[in-house]
Amino acid sequence: MTEGKDEKLRRKFRILVAPLDWGLGHATRCVPIIKELVANGCDVWLAGKGSPGVLLRSEFPQLPFLSLAGYDIEYGKTPAAFLWKMILQAPRIISSVIAEHRWLNRIIKTHGFDAVISDNRFGLFHSSAPCVFVTHQLNIKSPLGNWNERILQKWNYYYINRFKECWVPDLMGENNLAGELSHPPTLPRVPIKYIDPLSRFEKKEIPEIEGHLLVILSGPEPQRTILENRIIDEVSHYSGTACIARGLPSSQSVIPSTGMIKFYNHLSATELNEEIEKADWVISRSGYSTVMDLAKLQKKSILIPTPGQTEQEYLAALLFDKKLAFTVKQKEFSLNPILAEAKKFNYRFSSLGNPNGLRLAVKNFLDSVTVQ
């Protein structure tokens, strides 16, 4: 029996939120979206698997969680190997998109979701339930050049146009963080909402510790481990203190801490927020979610793009030009010389203001769900 409009209005809207599993960034930037939905009285359910799933369950233990297989992407050890692996995995990615679309059709029938928020999961669109696609990559950079980027954009838009609307976590205009990634000349046909940069962190004015380093490791293997091993070797010769967040919330393997270097497989949002605040320097990948966090907290950073990952390489170059971050290639990273260079870098932090783009996007979306 079909549910009447009045009956639907009397209960909470049941909304599914599901991020992609390429690193933790897609999950972390969903945190403020989930909080905004909960604040609006929604019955929020989460879906995922692996480390992103562990992170979301630790942040929201009270919310129902569904198992949803990831794309399980593997990265190569070199830029050339990365590109070749991505080409070889393309059929598996397409297969995963088809599988998650079928999964969503079953789950909506079983649990009666009114809407879906998908962070970069192309298959989570539905013919009757309104679905939102969240991405900062309307324009996908490719090491193969402009011809391949045009093909990727057509493929990207083919799926985005199946959603009700697309939310872009960036600012409109020139004062943005993602440059050409989020502001291409041609946009998808569906409504595009710039919801401002998303961060789960708040500025707490915790005093910085002079010379203290925070290293945030993240991303798919084997590059996460390759950088971790290099960082450990470099930090062992550092005269100051350091904290290393390994980005492994589901791992049982631990690295013993010392008096000068603290290792954590995972830090909660509150703990990581405080560690970032008290660090003199933050060393991390140039993943976009980390970029948004550092921009909000206005922290001096040294960003190391994942070799071969064109998006991170583009972001690193963009932020270096904007004086928002110092950047270095992984093969050129040597801690003490790089710190000496970063100390001479003229960081120029621009205020992100008091963004309310997410709040407005959620309110307008819920209003549109009401009248379905």
Tell me roughly what share of residues is in helical segments.
25-40%
Number of helices: 12
The helix-and-strand class reads alpha/beta
The CATH topology of the largest domain comes to: Rossmann fold
- Report the sheet-strand fraction: 5-15%
Strand order of the largest sheet: 3-2-1-4-5-6-7
What summary fits the major beta sheet?
7 strands, parallel
How many β-strand runs? Answer: 13
Q: What is the CATH level 1 assignment of the largest domain?
A: Alpha Beta
In the CATH hierarchy, the architecture of the largest domain is: 3-Layer(aba) Sandwich
The CATH superfamily label of the largest domain reads Glycogen Phosphorylase B
Order of helices and strands, N to C? HEHHEHEHEEHEEEHEEHEHEHEHH
Low-confidence spans: pLDDT under 50, at least 5 residues? 1-7
Identify the quaternary structure here: single chain
**CA(first)-CA(last) distance:** 16 Å
Q: Radius of gyration over alpha carbons? A: 21 Å
Shape: globular
- The structural domain count equals 2
Describe the protein.
The protein has 372 residues and is α/β, with parallel strands linked by helices. The protein folds into two domains: 5-197 and 355-370, Rossmann fold, CATH 3.40.50.2000; 213-342, Glycogen Phosphorylase B (Rossmann fold, 3-Layer(aba) Sandwich), CATH 3.40.50.2000. It is built from twelve helices and 13 strands. The protein has helices at residues 5-10, 25-28, 30-39, 50-59, 79-111, 146-160, 223-235, 269-278, 288-297, 310-321, 335-342, 357-370; strands at 14-19, 43-48, 65-67, 115-119, 131-134, 165-168, 192-194, 213-216, 242-245, 261-264, 281-284, 301-303, 326-327. The strands form two sheets. It has a seven-stranded parallel beta sheet. Strands 10-9-8-11-12-13 form a six-stranded parallel beta sheet, with helices on both faces. Mean pLDDT is 89; it is low at 1-7.
